[in-house]
Amino acid sequence: MNPTPPQDFLLTAAAGTRVVVRYRIEGGFTDALGDLLSAAAGSCTVRTRQSDVVIPLELVVAAKAVPPPPPRRSARSVL
């Protein structure tokens, strides 16, 4: 049984799915974690905390859906 290629996963995942995408950059790899905004034949766009990241699908080496982020902690009170 062959696993689904990450590009196929991204092309079939629904917009709004929370994903992590590992892709090649000069000198190694990096990850984009956030909501999948769109995916087309040549690229996908992931909305991270900092910005929207456009990733060429040819550079993607892994991708998967991830659970929602944990709830933010409440501020600690000073005693």
Q: Which SSEs are present, and which pair or pack?
A:
Layout: H1 6-12, E1 18-25, E2 28-39, E3 43-47, E4 52-56, E5 60-65
Antiparallel strand pairs: 1-2, 1-5, 2-3, 3-4
Q: Kindly state the number of beta strands.
A: 5
Please give the largest β-sheet: 5 strands, antiparallel
Q: Which segments are poorly predicted (pLDDT under 50) over 5 or more consecutive residues?
A: none
- Compressed to H and E, one letter per element, the order equals HEEEEE
Terminal-residue CA separation: 58 Å
Task: Work out the helix count.
Answer: 1
Work out the oligomeric state of the chains in this entry. single chain
Question: Explain this structure to me?
Answer:
The longest helix is centred in the first third of the chain and has 7 residues, at 6-12. The chain has one helix spanning 6-12; strands spanning 18-25, 28-39, 43-47, 52-56, 60-65. The chain is elongated. The chain is mostly beta strands and 79 residues long. A hairpin with a 2-residue loop joins strand 1 (18-25) and strand 2. It has 1 helix and 5 strands; from the N terminus they run αβββββ.
Quick structural gist:
The protein has one helix at 6-12, and strands spanning 18-25, 28-39, 43-47, 52-56, 60-65. With 79 residues, the chain is mainly beta.
Which structural traits does this protein have?
elongated, 5-stranded antiparallel beta sheet, 9% helix, mainly beta, 79 residues, single chain, 1 helix
